[in-house]
Design a protein that fits this description.
Layout: H1 2-30, E1 38-51, E2 58-59, E3 63-64, E4 68-71, E5 75-86, E6 89-108, E7 111-132, E8 135-154, E9 157-180, E10 183-195, E11 201-214
């Protein structure tokens, strides 16, 4: 009986003695906070539009022969945030706009038609990463809800406008450099697609750079 009591007290002593150590380890883990392994940032860059089913006599990927003031590389931007489940895999959400591309055509009699197209949306991507010390490489593939806006105006007056939204694949790749504590410089390439109500299919790339923070 005494041996049983002694064993019981030894077990209780071991448990109580280990409790502070366990509690201390828990405190250290909790100190990382709820934002551990997350990141967020903003990029600005240049888009590049093109038809994926180009009409006859299309040049510069977007603009028809005879057009002028062709701008198929507008300014675009994106906001992003993600969570790395493990150092090599995570999820990333983003909101992006590829900018608004346009071209102009002379209608004669001093009138000018301006055709505009813009792709924007938000998506969720799987992220594969290769951490290399202060440098991090990543590739992304996911799905986006994209909206394409197609506008035509004549002499500054809108004569036609259409918006069309649908799910489209989203691709990307990038590299980031840790520059100070959690601050990173990130360089990205992103590709999005969209289709108008008239069946015109467009694809746009966004080449961007910006600042982010890894928590």
């Amino acid at each position: 009986m005494r041996a049983a009591h002694l064993a019981t007290w030894l077990v209780l002593g071991a448990v109580l003695g280990a409790a502070p150590l366990t509690g201390g380890a828990q405190v250290v883990t909790d100190q990382r906070g709820p934002l551990a392994n997350t990141y967020a940032g903003a990029n600005v860059g240049v888009g590049n539009y093109r038809y994926t089913n180009p009409p006859v006599a299309t040049v510069d990927n977007l603009c028809p022969v005879g057009s002028f003031d062709c701008k198929n590389k507008p300014v675009g931007w994106k906001l992003y945030g993600g969570y790395m489940i493990i150092p090599y895999f995570g999820l990333e959400g983003s909101f992006f706009t590829m900018g608004e591309a346009h071209f102009k055509e002379d209608l004669g009699g001093g009138s000018t038609r301006t055709a505009k197209v813009g792709i924007a949306g938000y998506g969720l991507s799987m992220v594969g990463a290769v951490p290399l010390g202060p440098v991090n490489l990543n590739g992304r593939v996911g799905w986006a809800a994209t909206t394409i806006t197609r506008k035509d105006d004549v002499d500054g007056v809108i004569v036609a406008r259409g918006d069309h939204s649908r799910g489209e694949p989203l691709f990307g790749a990038g590299i980031d450099f840790r520059i100070w504590r959690g601050m990173i410089l990130r360089l990205d390439w992103d590709r999005s697609r969209a289709t108008t109500e008239l069946g015109e299919k467009f694809e746009a790339d966004l080449y961007s750079a910006g600042i982010g923070w890894r928590f």
